[in-house]
Design goal:
Elements: H1 17-33, H2 36-43, H3 51-60, H4 79-92, H5 98-111, H6 118-127, E1 133-135, E2 154-161, E3 168-173, E4 176-181, E5 187-191, E6 201-207, E7 212-215, H7 217-256, E8 258-259, E9 262-263, H8 268-297, H9 302-327, H10 339-349, H11 356-366
Parallel strand pairs: 1-3
Antiparallel strand pairs: 2-6, 3-4, 4-7, 5-6, 8-9
Helix pairs in contact: 1-4, 4-7, 4-8, 5-6, 5-7, 7-8, 7-9, 7-10, 8-9, 9-10, 9-11
Length: 372
């Protein structure tokens, strides 16, 4: 584990050799099991998730346990390594519950600080890839807020990202955090039709559902906030990977597409648009890496680093996806080309774990500046 950053110490924004090795393994797996035709085909089916892909990623590579301590069966790594995995998942927009389960739900359980008992047992299951857990708060939530579920677990919640892939729901209530199996009596998951077909949403209905209480109300609120903070911070890495793919694919296409016997990429106006996008992505990479490093090192500036990353990376991802669609011309508008998947993911991510405007307000409050 990386030692906490001392006050005034500059963050490490570079990728280590181990992180690059992890990237290579994840990219190879996704190229084999989650290429563009495969992802498009799955989004058109009733089964967007690929169980074999999840097993290979979570168990064989061991990515599901990166944030979990070794004594609980995890890898004992940091958010920096998890960010690399999420960056590659963003690059392929593969339907996989990694951000929601292996980051948000896992970080929520870790924040409880209880390694013995039900929370520790569930963490071990998540680290081994045997179970998927999802925090039952709306995907747009930026903080815990007042609990909307009674102690008797009666409520309708949503939209919840990746609930359809979950084995366990982590439900914050007025009296604490509860772990509710999705197949428990009184629990029902109803799929919704989302904008982003690569990250399915669902409504969760609890009717006196049976669950295991993991923590009291105070500990629950702190843990949920910690989980959502980690989710927002590493979502920036997903947006970075998405934007990088969009730029690379656009450059490749404009080199190969010819008009007037010249590659369209040689036209000055298109060069300027792609150069501007490259500059934005370089800055997005710095912001995303800073957020991941702050989370990994326990920096006191973590809330600020996460807010800055989300306020900036959301805009860059949407811009990159829009440019990808437009600069591909007619083919970029077709269902067969994956550009639309990236645009929809970028648009959906822009409202996940707090909008860019919400994060700008956070930056203003933390820096004691007038709100935008």
């Amino acid at each position: 584990m990386t030692a906490p950053t001392e006050a005034g110490q500059a963050p490490d924004l570079l990728y280590s050799e181990a992180e690059e090795d992890l990237r290579a393994a994840v990219r190879s797996l996704l190229a084999d099991r989650a290429d563009a035709p495969s992802v498009i085909a799955r989004t058109e089916s009733d089964t967007p998730y690929d169980p074999q892909l999840w097993k290979a990623l979570a168990t064989d590579i061991g990515a599901a346990g990166l944030l979990v301590p070794e004594e609980l069966g995890g890898q004992g790594a940091t958010h920096r390594e998890a960010a690399v995995v999420i960056e590659e998942l963003g690059r392929s927009v593969a339907p996989a519950p990694y951000l929601t389960s292996s980051v948000v739900a896992t970080e929520t359980l870790l924040a409880l600080g209880a390694q013995d008992g039900p929370a520790g047992g569930l963490l071990a299951e998540l680290a081994a890839g045997r179970k998927v857990a999802v925090l039952a708060v709306p995907f747009s939530a930026a903080s815990a807020g007042p609990p909307t579920v009674t102690g008797s677990l009666d409520a309708t919640l949503g939209p919840i990202a990746d609930a359809a892939a979950a084995d366990v729901l982590l439900v914050p209530t007025g009296d604490g955090l509860h772990a509710v199996p999705v197949d428990a009596p009184g629990a029902a998951v109803e799929p919704l039709v989302p904008l982003d077909l690569t990250r399915p949403l669902a409504t969760v209905t609890l009717t006196g559902a049976a669950g295991t209480r993991l923590a009291d109300a105070a500990a629950s609120a702190h843990a949920v906030d910690r989980g959502l903070l980690a989710g927002a911070g590493l979502l920036a890495s997903e947006q970075l990977g998405l934007a990088e793919w969009c730029l690379a694919e656009t450059v490749r296409h404009t080199r190969e597409r010819h008009q007037f016997n010249r590659p369209v990429g040689s036209f000055q106006s298109l060069k300027h648009r792609m150069a501007q996008l490259w500059l934005e992505i370089v800055s997005a990479r710095a912001a995303a890496r800073n957020a991941a490093d702050a989370l990994a090192t326990g920096s006191p500036d973590t809330p600020l680093a996460v807010a800055v990353a989300q306020a900036y990376c959301s805009k860059v991802a949407v811009h990159a996806a829009e440019e990808c669609v437009q600069l591909h011309g007619g083919i970029g508008m077709t269902w067969e080309h994956p550009a639309h998947l990236y645009l929809k993911r970028a648009k959906a991510d822009a409202t996940a774990y707090g909008t860019a405007g919400r994060h700008r307000e956070t930056v203003a409050a933390l820096m004691e500046l007038p709100a935008p």
